[in-house]
Amino acid sequence: MTPILPLLLLAAAQSEKLPPANPIPLDRSDEVAVMVPVNGIFAGLTAHDGQAILTHVRPEGMATVAIEKPDGGRAIRRMSWADFAGGIKPGPQHLEERMTNPAIDIDGDIAMVWGRYVLLVDGKPHHCGVNHFDMLRENGQWKVLNVTWSQRTTGCED
């Protein structure tokens, strides 16, 4: 007779993890389409063009950063997309955000993009963390509703 308790414990441990959120069969073109607005935001950042960023987002959404300070402190900052884009100013620095190996989950007209990133300023790591993009598709076009990211200055690799 199989002991029930170990099976229940195993089931409980497995239920703490979320199941894959992509029950609809995906093809590579779906993932590429989801990344278009994400890459558009990165391009707007590189171009120092806040208005270009706004073309890839839904205006009712938010940008939220969880900053890990060097002294061990933490801060949370929430911004409307208009405030976020307004903070992108022209400047001589070359900005480049790289997101490696993003995990993309799609279910119908919602999607999530999650992955590590590093922000380079003039080719050198400035800060890094994890991005989480909350996506919606409307009329066949993907837009970013919300982005949340962690930000730290240690352990950054380009």
CATH topology: Nuclear Transport Factor 2, Chain: A
DSSP E strands, number:
6
CATH architecture: Roll
Beta-strand content: 35-45%
Number of domains: 1
Q: What is the oligomeric state here? A: single chain
Protein name: Nuclear transport factor 2 family protein
Organism: Sphingomonas colocasiae
Write a compact overview of the structure shown.
The protein is an alpha+beta fold and 158 residues long. Helix content is 27%, strand content 44%.
Describe the fold and architecture.
The structure is a single chain. This protein is an alpha+beta fold and 158 residues long. The chain has one domain (26-151): Nuclear Transport Factor 2, Chain: A. Helices cover 27% and strands 44% of the residues. It contains 4 helices and 6 strands, in the order αααββαββββ.
What labels would you give this structure?
158 residues; alpha+beta; Nuclear Transport Factor 2, Chain: A; six-stranded mixed sheet; 4 helices; 6 strands; globular; disordered N terminus
Layout: helices, strands, pairs:
Layout: H1 4-15, H2 28-46, H3 50-54, E1 57-68, E2 74-80, H4 81-86, E3 95-107, E4 110-121, E5 124-138, E6 141-151
Parallel strand pairs: 1-6
Antiparallel strand pairs: 1-2, 3-4, 4-5, 5-6
